[in-house]
Amino acid sequence: MEKQQFEFIGKKFDIKNIGKVTGREIYSCDVNIPGQLCAVVLRSPYSHAEIKKIDYTEAERMGAICIGPSEQLPHPLNHLH
């Protein structure tokens, strides 16, 4: 059998992003800080619907910190309106 010439097989080459390739890279979503809060956005299943009421009872029972529609934020964020 003839020895074939391969471009990569049997040769060493530099892998620049070895962490990404092996799954060992650490991303911001992998970091947990004591007291850290996570945000969840509840979207309406109806486009352009007016929110009249949101029942936070179950979420608060689990220890969630609930913030209602963007109008209730202390510093309104234009992209949420």
From TrEMBL:
<protein>
    <recommendedName>
        <fullName>Aldehyde oxidase/xanthine dehydrogenase a/b hammerhead domain-containing protein</fullName>
    </recommendedName>
</protein>
<dbReference type="InterPro" id="IPR036856">
    <property type="entry name" value="Ald_Oxase/Xan_DH_a/b_sf"/>
</dbReference>
<dbReference type="InterPro" id="IPR000674">
    <property type="entry name" value="Ald_Oxase/Xan_DH_a/b"/>
</dbReference>
<feature type="domain" description="Aldehyde oxidase/xanthine dehydrogenase a/b hammerhead">
    <location>
        <begin position="22"/>
        <end position="74"/>
    </location>
</feature>
